What does this fold into?
Amino acid sequence: MLITHDTRCALDTVVDLVNTAPEDDTTPDGLPDVGALEVFVRDHEVSEVGVLTEFDLAAVRKIRGRFAAVFAAPDARTAAGLINELIAAAGTTPRLTDHDGYDWHVHYFAPGASVADHLAADCGMALAFFVVAGEQERLRRCEAPDCRHAFVDLSRNRSRRYCDSRTCGNRLHVAAYRARRKEAAG
It folds into this structure.
């Protein structure tokens, strides 16, 4: 599956956005205020965004939950329905652009769109490409019991199980090794 630069950026953005959500009542929100949203927008190079407000923060948190539902979707039909709703609500308007030194690519949000509509359109289309390609199962959650971060499995054989093999994967492998050693020691 060919993934263009702008699609990859949108995938990284949607994964990072979903992972800002608190996992439960004891974990903090990764987007606690407008300042954090501004940092998120800047760090992800979200273009054509004006001054952000509390309204924008609430709207982004709302679509974050809708994107999380896409990652939890049990099948392609459910994921497609959720993505269609996101894209339709954003008022998707595809257009070619070559801003900030990037070659020609497609933006799916209308000029002057809110940051939430921008994210819903561009990130929704990036996820749509996976459903269209029959690759919806690549939209996953980490299998580590203490981590449910979202990620996109871009491995060749679709075998990635953890959001980060250096942390979650390694931690589980070390724990399993220690358990085997303890069991063998009697």
Summary: The first helix runs from residue 5 to 18. Helices lie at 5-18, 34-43, 54-72, 76-89, 115-132, 165-185. The radius of gyration is 18 Å. The chain has one domain: 5-141.
